[in-house]
Amino acid sequence: MQQLLTILINGVTSGMIYAAFALALVLIWRSTRIVNFAQAPMAMVTTYIALVVIDAGYSYWVGFGAALVCGFVLGAAVERLVVRYVDNSRPMNPVILTLGLFIILHALAALVFGNQFRSFPAPFGLTGQQIGGMDVAITGFDLFKIVAVLVVLGLLVLLFRFTDLGLKMRASAFQPEVARLLGVRVGRMLTLGWALAAVVGSVAGLLIAGGSLVHPGYMDSIVVFGFVAAVLGGLESPGGAVVGGLVMGLGLSAVSGYLGQSLVAFAALVILILVLLLRPSGLFAQTAARKV
């Protein structure tokens, strides 16, 4: 019973991490129609910026805010200075570009911040709770992760369903020519999509880093798990990203707890293959996938 409870709690908390990263992928897909594999190193860079601020003597929350602001600026700069000049006639071109950015940002982070492991603080306690005489492996920071991801989900739903800005962003991504004819500043909407996605990615990076060690590659595995979670839920659905993250978290936690940590990556690959074979548009997809 104790082991099952621990597996479930670990699954929910890690699933929320995957969900946070999947939300960033969903946001940039819905607003620009690009799968950004550079999302992880971008979040890693902003996490290091937060660590620099905290090490300078400022509070965790000042560092948290600095990371979000820098994430917004970094996302906008990447779109304005790099992505905008890529030939979009072939959908693979931007994807290849983001893979290149993945490598470049890794290398730059190693040069600027170093390759050594560094401890990142957490704003809340990292000790488990005791409920009814039973040790429960959920910490104050775990609860913060859950709340933070749910808040991000709520904000994204509000943005895309109930605001004119969200409608303009989606129109710019789906039908840029028609959107321009209707007076929408498509370039600004695409820049805003990248900027907001980088902010959500920064949140994911901070949640992963809290109370653990960071280095330039600390988010690499999240690229795989977060991408599978986004595909599982459907790249069009923020709610699906959260559900997909939870499914991934619980599934991989069960594999790790009962079969061994060495099979976690294999299990994630199996889940991705099954989703692509059985329901390639995702569990919660509402629109047909674009055909090339």
From TrEMBL:
Pfam families noted in UniProt: BPD_transp_2 (PF02653)
Entry keyword set: Amino-acid transport, Cell membrane, Membrane, Transmembrane, Transmembrane helix, Transport
Keyword Nucleus: no
Example of a GO biological process term: amino acid transport
InterPro entries: ABC_transp_permease, BCAA_transport_permease
Listed GO MF terms: transmembrane transporter activity
Keyword presence, Zinc: no
Gene Ontology CC annotations of this record: plasma membrane
Topological category with respect to the lipid bilayer: Multi-pass membrane protein
Compartments in which it is found: Cell membrane
Family statement: Belongs to the binding-protein-dependent transport system permease family. LivHM subfamily.
Protein name as catalogued: Branched-chain amino acid transport system permease protein
Species of provenance: Rhodococcus triatomae
